[in-house]
Design a protein that fits this description.
This protein has 280 residues and is an alpha+beta fold. It has 8 helices and 10 strands. Strands 5-4-3-7-6 form a 5-stranded antiparallel beta sheet, with helices on one face. Strands 8-9-10 form a 3-stranded antiparallel beta sheet. A two-stranded antiparallel ribbon has the order 1-2.
């Protein structure tokens, strides 16, 4: 991973953290405003200290959302049921920690201690919907983000992928142009400034050099056996050693060709990968 990629990741993480912090502060402010409006509507007293205490349910979003985000990010391929379990677990943990947090804070800093059961009932009746929205939303947003990233990455890779050479070669036959498949070619030999292309029972004179055609043919099935010859390894049925480093190979049409010692190692390696070795 290079430096620009690392910087990009940190910038994205910082942007996400900033958005979450602003959302959290906004949620606390909205809670205080909501409590104030309810106090006016119901003609009851408004105590900002108590309202702030009960807004502590918003504080818990920070650690729990962070953990949930890390889980869904680390295991992006988990199925629907496991994702649902993570969401429900996040909600359950929040519902358990919230009453305990209120109880501890009220016991330490307030004249009245709020019971755990009292706060839990309040959370279930007033805040449960918000927990469902937030924790489901986090999972959904990350899922969509990953999906968009994958689609974008796939589209980019496709647009940048090299254009593959067609499996068809156009050759001349008098005044006609014929399309022949590379897999039908038995071997190709140099005939400067042209090349001869040999098929089963046919031969074509093609206006290209052996060096140029060697870059076009599929390298997994074509191999150079001589400075003037390229052979389709799938068309070779056997080869015989001459005892001096050179070999004679036999094609499926019974034609024999010489394998130069300079190209023998590459030829034998490809032959043995495709065929069962048949050394005479």
């Amino acid at each position: 991973m290079n430096l620009p990629q690392v910087q990009s990741i940190f910038q994205k993480e910082r942007k996400t953290s900033l958005i979450f912090l602003i959302s959290l502060l906004s949620l606390i402010a909205l809670t205080l405003i909501q409590d104030y409006i309810e106090a006016i509507v119901h003609d009851t007293g408004f105590y900002i200290s108590e309202s702030f205490l009960f807004s502590s349910y918003s504080w818990l979003f920070a650690p729990i959302v962070f953990i949930q985000y890390r889980i869904v990010r680390k295991f992006p391929s988990i199925n629907f049921f496991l994702k649902t379990f993570v969401i429900l677990l996040s909600i359950a943990i929040h519902l358990l920690l919230y009453p305990l947090l209120v109880w501890v804070l009220s016991n330490l800093f307030y004249s009245h201690t709020f019971r755990v059961s009292q706060t839990l009932n309040y959370a279930l009746s007033q805040k449960l919907y918000l927990l469902v929205i937030v924790y489901s939303g986090i999972a959904l947003l990350y899922h969509n983000r990953e999906r968009i990233t994958k689609i974008t990455s796939l589209a980019t890779s496709k647009s940048q992928a090299p254009i593959l050479i067609s499996d068809i070669l156009l050759v001349s036959d008098g005044t006609k142009k014929l399309a022949i498949s590379y897999s039908d070619i038995l071997f190709i030999s140099a005939n400067p400034p042209y090349i001869n292309i040999y098929l089963e029972g046919r031969k074509y004179l093609h206006s290209e050099t052996l060096k140029a055609i060697s870059k076009q043919v599929p390298s997994e099935i074509f191999v150079r056996i001589h400075k003037s010859t390229i052979v389709n390894i799938k068309a070779v049925t056997s080869y015989t050693s001459r005892g001096n480093g050179d070999y004679d190979l036999c094609l499926q049409n019974k034609v024999e060709l010489r394998v130069s010692r300079n190209y023998a190692a590459d030829f034998k390696d490809k032959f043995e990968k495709i065929h069962r070795v048949a050394i005479v």
